[in-house]
Design brief:
Layout (H helix, E strand, L loop, with lengths): L9 H15 L2 H18 L10 H12 L3 H38 L6 E3 L28 H17 L4 H9 L9 E5 L5 H9 L4 E6 L2 H13 L5 E4 L12 E7 L7 H14 E11 L8 H13 L5 H5 L3 H7 L3 E7 L7 E6 L8
Parallel strand pairs: 1-4, 2-3, 2-5, 3-4, 5-6
Antiparallel strand pairs: 6-8, 7-8
Helix pairs in contact: 1-4, 2-3, 2-4, 4-5, 5-8, 6-7
The structure holds S-adenosylmethionine.
């Protein structure tokens, strides 16, 4: 039992296909909008490098220029329509097939993969009630939001829009860890378990623990774990405060968690990773491109995408020097950069030294 080959009903499938085709089929509009962007740079500054240093000023100059360009407005409208509606379209598609799936959904909620929740648990303010990705209610906005995100938004929408696919990329990143084998892995911000599964496939003998704030995504990760016969231990805990024992993991990972957190929480995540790792243990943290690695135009595109895509913490998070944060947390042999010459995903690897001073 697994959901990889989920069949939607004709109406839901058609709605999703229409959204994707509208985006993919608008290449002429996008090309024309891109020409307008190039003209804007030429007219406003003469070159990308000469655009304003200040990102808000840059955004405002480019937006004012492009506001009157019809192709740019159409492209913006399509993006806005997709961002605003994709979550609701996925929910509708799910609700049409829910009755047919219900027995399977219930059966997969118990098995070797366990989910622990805690009466004292409270999600932090920067996460609670935020409509991440402009999905109403955010990560927990529907009783089956984990399924909706993991199996419909990610598998049927994002995967086909993302160059190379989102699952292959997770397997590539999982394989970057330095050892061939780990005993205990902690995957922070595991959500519906996509990266957790890549870890389980890459390190089949490891015991894997996953944490997330979102109960609905964890419930789906549990189904995914059970569907594939894994024995994951899933916990509803904040990455920066897992309440797990000191020195118990030999690898701590996160995959596109950090851009959903404010800067202070990110520093706390590295400190928490250090605390729960055994001496000699490793981190493998991957996230979105650093703004310092992007030119001024790429920064503008990333920033706009984040703003329209419902990513309130992206800019502050992507502006952080994660190597420095890792070193400040006590890690050594810090190595950070894009994978295979690309700027995304940006991966930080480091080691907890064997000799650690007083904690
Ligand atoms: C983009 S998803 C992560 C994707 C996932 N790792 C994968 O491979 O698909 C971000 C997740 O981080 C979770 N999250 C955000 N802040 C968190 C925190 N402080 N602690 C744990 N999880 C957090 C969100 O609830 C969400 O499920």
């Amino acid at each position: 039992m697994a959901f990889e080959h989920l069949q939607l009903k004709q109406r839901g499938r058609a709605e999703i296909d229409f959204m994707l085709s509208t985006f993919l089929g608008s290449s002429t509009v996008r090309e024309s909008a891109e020409q307008a962007v190039q003209s804007a740079i030429e007219e406003l500054a003469g070159s990308i490098e000469a655009l304003p240093e200040n990102l808000d000023e840059r955004n405002s100059q480019l937006e004012s220029f492009l506001y009157n360009v019809r192709s740019f407005r159409v492209q913006q409208l399509l993006g806005e329509w997709y961002s605003r509606n994709h979550g609701a379209a996925a929910v509708r598609a799910f609700e049409e097939v829910q009755a047919k799936l219900q027995i399977e959904l219930d059966q997969l909620s118990s098995g070797k993969t366990t989910l622990e929740t805690f009466p004292d648990f409270q999600a932090p303010d920067y996460w609670r009630d935020v409509d991440f990705h402009r999905t109403e209610g955010g990560w927990d906005g529907h009783p089956y939001m984990g399924f909706v995100h993991g199996e419909i938004v990610h598998r049927k929408m994002v995967d086909s829009l993302f160059p190379g696919g989102i699952f292959k990329q997770r397997r590539q990143v999982a394989a970057l860890a330095k050892q061939d084998h780990y005993d205990n892995i902690l995957d922070m911000g595991c959500s519906t378990g996509h990266f957790t599964k890549a870890l389980a496939e890459t390190y089949p003998n490891a015991s894997i623990t996953g944490t997330d704030l979102s109960l609905k995504t964890l419930e789906h990760a549990q189904r995914v774990g059970n569907a594939h016969g894994y024995s994951w231990r899933l916990l509803q805990r904040a990455a920066e405060d897992t309440k797990l024992a000191h020195d118990c993991f030999d690898l701590v990972t996160s995959y596109i968690l950090l851009h959903e957190m404010p800067a202070s929480a990110i520093a706390a995540v590295f400190a928490e990773s250090f605390r729960v790792l055994k001496p000699g243990g490793e981190i493998l943290m991957s996230d979105v491109s650093r703004y310092t690695d992007l030119n001024k135009l790429e920064q503008w595109r990333a920033d706009r995408g984040a703003m329209y895509g419902g990513e309130p913490h992206w800019r502050a998070s992507a502006s952080l020097d994660l190597s420095k944060i890792a070193k400040d947390a006590g890690f050594i042999k810090v190595n950070a950069g894009g994978v295979q010459g690309a700027k995304y995903p940006y991966v930080v690897q480091a080691i907890k030294p064997h000799e650690v001073g007083n904690r």
